Structures are given as structure tokens and as C-alpha cells.
From TrEMBL, chain A:
Protein name in UniProt: Leucine/isoleucine/valine transporter permease subunit
Transmembrane segments: 27-44, 56-78, 98-123, 130-148, 183-200, 236-259, 271-296, 316-335
GO cellular component: plasma membrane
Localization annotation: Cell membrane
InterPro entries per the UniProt record, alphabetical: ABC_transp_permease (IPR001851), LivM-like (IPR043428)
UniProt keyword terms in alphabetical order: Cell membrane, Membrane, Transmembrane, Transmembrane helix
Major localisation: membrane
GO terms of molecular function: branched-chain amino acid transmembrane transporter activity
Topology term for the membrane: Multi-pass membrane protein
Automatic annotation (TrEMBL), chain B:
Name the record gives this protein: Sulfate/thiosulfate import ATP-binding protein CysA
GO CC terms: plasma membrane
InterPro entries reported in the protein's UniProt record: AAA+_ATPase, ABC_AA/LPS_Transport, ABC_transporter-like_ATP-bd, BCA_ABC_TP_C, P-loop_NTPase
Keywords, ordered alphabetically: ATP-binding, Hydrolase, Nucleotide-binding, Transport
MF term (GO), any: ATP binding
Superkingdom of origin: Bacteria
Species of origin: Jannaschia seosinensis
Coiled-coil blocks: none
Enzyme class: hydrolase
Amino acid sequence: MLYREAGDFKTSYAADAQTFPLAFDRWGYWVLLALAALVVPFVVNDYWANALLIPFLIYAIAALGLNILTGYCGQVSLGTGGFMAVGAYSSYKLMTAFPWMDMVSVTLLSGLVTAGVGLLFGLPSLRIKGFYLAVATLAAQFFLVWLFNRVPWFYNYSASGQISAPERELFGLVLTGPNAASAVQYLFCLAIVIALAWFARNLTRGTVGRKWMAIRDMDIAAEIIGVNPLRAKLSAFAISSFFVGISGALFFTIYLGAVEVNSAFGIQKSFLILFMVIIGGLGSIFGSFAGAAFLVLLPVVLKLVGVDLLGWPTTIVAHLQLVVVGGLIIFFLVVEPHGLAQLWRLTKEKLRLWPFPH
Amino acid sequence: MNAHTDSFTTDDGRTIGGTVLDLRNITLRFGGVEAIKNISFDIREGEIRAIIGPNGAGKSSMLNVISGFYVPQEGEVWFRGEKRPQMRPYQVAQQGVARTFQNIALFEGMSVLDNVMCGRLGYMSSNILTQGLWWGRAAREETENRESVERVIDFLEIQAIRKTPVGRLPYGLKKRVELARALAAEPKLLLLDEPMAGMNVEEKEDMSRFILDVNDEFGTTIALIEHDMGVVMDLSDRVVVMDYGRKIGDGTPDEVRSNQEVIDAYLGVAHD
């Protein structure tokens, strides 16, 4: 009964074009933000922050990035893991080469470096589409991982071939390294996620977003109404890689602390992010969050239910997770190609009319 | 070739100006097939110019040459007094040529409003950073262009479906939305590729009304391809008739109607 547009009048085009047109949604959004920023950091313990919240936030950034490229601009990419690696290694090189640099700048610069690399690997998209482009981005994935494995300069000639994040402070609080408090790390990630999600939303509701979606829906018609396909596709690659790079940087500096490129940024990571986007919903900001939350939560829930509650062996549960994810992908592709976001949208449409749908 | 520079007023009070588009000796080949053979004609400012002809006559190819999809092997395209160099279709669009397609080419995943807003792309120039921050010019442009888009939406009477995803609309409305997207660009030249194909009589009447109103109120120059003879003869100021890639007639509807070659092409002629 509360969820209504009745009485919520718009008197300007700006008000009509806002992200949450219903007052109820707007309030819900602000309450959620306040909870996440003001309550969660003070009640959460290390386990929940490290196992759930921080990976959720970091994956959400990567999913946003891939969603811009695949969901909004229609360019399939299997190189997400490789681009995350670019972000991680740029942040490592920046942190070690310029120890005075603060973490916000390090993270943003890593994103910019990745944007440049993404732009380069986006060039083939001007000539090839669909499966063929997917294969080209797959090449990027393997090439980048190979590069970070084989060129010692990237891991500062360390004997193990690993990179590990040195300790850095932000506003006097330890942010990276083993001594960091997880609440601080959580807040740092949260701030970046909020800023980036807002940025992505603004892009996708404006001119750039329309150009991307025009290319996605029908590239010939897009060109005939004046979209320069070169600029539209490359900007999608750059912005997407910027997001993915930041996600990779945080994945390394905040979440893992030490990284070996094969295990952290291999092809599995590319697929994981792609699954998040597909399950969450292609072409939806909310979907990126829903997909990330779902795939981060799933292993934890399965472990809780399978291992702790039912007493199954860990290996069985790990395999079961693969089965469940695979099944869900097929389910969503067949039943609801627009993912959780579409289910959410339909729910809201029903709610508006509830309880008198006629 | 001498372009028209004089202007005159028609019986119903519209002003027909100088030449907007001048096609000179256009020849287009696909391999060994000559789709367009040495065709010249012009389109004058403010007029409704029809291109007609039987199936396979090369009408759509002609439109594709104008909108930059096909590059003719021979001949020149003069647009607004200047010879047009070879261009990509998006550059042609940026010059002020908008078009609709025979089989609707809307963006199915977007709402009607977003589709029509796409027509305004040429008027929005804020960069990605300001758009991402929704700041200054980006936000201002969005509102300004929304106003002109709303005028088009009012004009074509599609207010009620403004926020509906295009994929959910019936065929006739989709055609109208496509016209809206082209109109939103405030084109110097509007190309309509069979705007009434597949419509029933009532929808055809509506669409004819809209085409005339567009021409009348905005003074838009229109070139259209159409099969329905009755409609073409009523709507257009001048008609080009094509057959097998050749131009067989050019003139007012009355002149064309009485042209023997045109009658032969349409009714067939006894070969003995």
C-alpha cells in the first residue's frame, strides 16, 4: 500500500529523469546507504567483513565494469580477470615506486592505467563482433596473465613471483597490510563503490549510455542516427576497464594482500564476473550488485548449510557449488535472460498495483 | 546541371526553396549488377519528394546512397551547395540527414523516450567526465533536449507510451516512434523508407497526416519511398520514377501519371 506513485508529482524534466522516481525507493535507498555506512562498520566482525562484505563490494565494482561493456554496449568480454590483474599490478608498481602516494590516488591511477590497456584491447571490436570478439578478449586474458608471470619487472624481481601490498595509511588509519582493521577496509571499499555506482548510473542514463545501448540493440541504426561506432565502443571499453582495474587493485591491496597472478586473476575470475553479470542482469546497475551479492553469498550459504548443518564433506560442497552455479546460469538464460534485476523490476511493477491489481 | 536557387510558393501556401540535395549521374554497382544507372535528380527545400518504382527498381539503394550506406562508383552527391566527400553514415547524420527504415530499426531494449532522445545525439556534446558526474553542461543538455523531444512526442501523439520499452509496442506505433526519433534530430533532409508498409488504411491515413503536418509545420524537406500510388500522388510535390535502376520519369504527380514509360513500367507492356 506504501509503494505508490500516486501523489508523487514531477514538475521538472530533471525530477522526471531521476534514478528513483518513487519516493518510497528514494527513502529506501538513503536508509540502505546510512545503514551500510553508519551502522555496519561498528557491528560487523572480521569474519563477516572479510568473507562477505569486502569481496561483495569489490566484485560489485568488477560486475559494474563488465556490465557497462557487455550489458550496456553489447560487447562480450572474457578478459575481465586479465584487466583486474592490470589494476592489481599497476597499484603494486605505484605503491612501491611512489611510497608517498595515498591510496585513493593509487586506486584511481590503477583504474586509469587499466582503462588505457582496455582501450588497446578494445580495438578489435571495431571489426569483429559476438563470439569472435569474445575469443579476442580471451587472448587478452591469457596474454596479460602470461605477461605478469614472465616479466619480473612487474613483481619487482621478487623470488616467489608474488606481489604483496605494503602497509599504507589513510587519515591515520591502517588500510592495507596485515595490521589493517577490516572495518576501515570495508568503509574504504564502500566509499569507492558508492562513487563508482553513482558515476556508472549517470553515464548510463545520459547520452553516453544511449549511444552504448544503441550500439548494443542495432549497430547499423545507431550509425545512421549519428553514433560514431568507434568512439562509442572504445569509450565503453575504457570506462569498463577503469572499473575493472579499480576492482583488481582493491582485490589485491585490500582483500588478498598478496597475489599470485594465475590463481587470483585466471580465466576462472573472468567467468565468475561474467556469471555475476548474467545472473544479476545484463544492462542494469542494480543487477551488478545483485549478481555479485548472489555469487559471493552462495558459497558461504552452501558451506553453512552443507558442512556445518548437514555435516557433508567440504569437497562435496565445493563441487555442489559448481553444479548449482552452472544450473543457475542455464536457468537464467532460459527463463529470465535479464536476470535478478528483471525479477526485481517485475516485483516492483506488481507491488505498485498490490493489493488491487485490476 | 544547374541547381535551383529561386524559391516559390505552392498553392497551399508552403514555400519551396533552393536545392538541398543534388544527385548527379549516380551509378551504383554490386559486382556485375548495376543497381542504379546514371541517375540525376534534386530535392528542393521544403518539398515532399517521392521516389517510386516497381520492386527491385533501386529505390532503397538510392536512399542508402543518400544516407551514406552505399558509396556510388560514379557520380556526385551535392548537399546544401557543397560536394559531399566520401563519408561514413554517422557523419551524414551529423550533417542533418535523418531517416527511417523499411523494416523498423528501433532500439528494442530502450524506452520510447530514450529512443527519441537518441535523435538528439547531434545536439549533445558534453564529455564523459561531466556526464558521469552529472554536472554543469551534461545535466543542462539533458533537460534542454528533453524539451525538444517532448515537443516531438506531443506532435506525434505518443505521450502515453513515453516510458514503455519499444519491444512491447505494436507495429504501427513503432513506425511512429521511428519517425519521432528521426524528427527529433530536426533534420535538414528527412528520408522515409516505405513509411506506410504493412499498415492498414486507418494507420496509413494517420501517417500521411503526420508526414504532411511535419512538412507544413516544421518546413522539413522530405524524400520518401512508397508503394501505395494513391498516397504518393496525394502527398508529394514531385515524383521520381525508377525502373531497373534507371530513371524513367521525373516531375509533378500529374506529369508522371501521364508519362507513357511510367504506365508501361507499372502496367506492363505487350512485347511483339
